[in-house]
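Can't paste images in this forum, so I'm doing it all in text. The chain is below; anyone willing to post the predicted structure tokens underneath?
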Amino acid sequence: EVRSLQDPGRPRRDDLSNPWYSEKPTFEGSEFREFRRCAQKVVDAMSEAFGEPLVLEHATISCTTRTGHPPHADNVQFDSVWWRGRQVRTRDEVLAAHGGAEVLWRSTKTSYRNYAASVALTNPWQYGDGELEFFSRWGDASPVAKYKLPQGSGMAYCGCQMSIHAVTGVKWGLRLVLLVWTKPPDTVVPQDQKRLCYFRPGTGQSVWLTTADLERYSG
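Text version of the structure:
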């Protein structure tokens, strides 16, 4: 299964910095079925672990770049810090948050998602750095946990502010991961989100399985 995802159609990968096609390519039936089957297997394992039904919403096979991903939460975005009813100045936010001030978050366009998972498609010895990091609170300089997962292993987490995470940049080699996002069964994906491809500066060359793809091949 890992091998089937390691190079799922090299001509379809694009880092979006200089797109060479005007629209997302159409999957071949066999390619889609294998990609979806592997992603669904991850979702089934997540559903069992979390004890609730989950629906596959989006998946990406991503090659992490030297940029990496700075600390973030998937489905919420940092807004501001408040202390005793007054907003804290930007330069004092981290210090105030560590001192007990309230950190406010705002919903993002992907707030309909609930969980995510990262599955390693390459082994730790195949790349330098590229560590998956988790932070206990916003503004922390050091993570509370770091992971370089062995090939075929994965980690699932919620998309809220309780799972602030990052990925350090890859200094050499190839870090290839399968990223999966889920939603509750009754949640409706907005029309303007169905065809969007998940992308951050450190995402690198990728292949996307969007909500529109899932609906297109539902039969």
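The radius of gyration is 18 Å. The longest helix spans residues 29-50.
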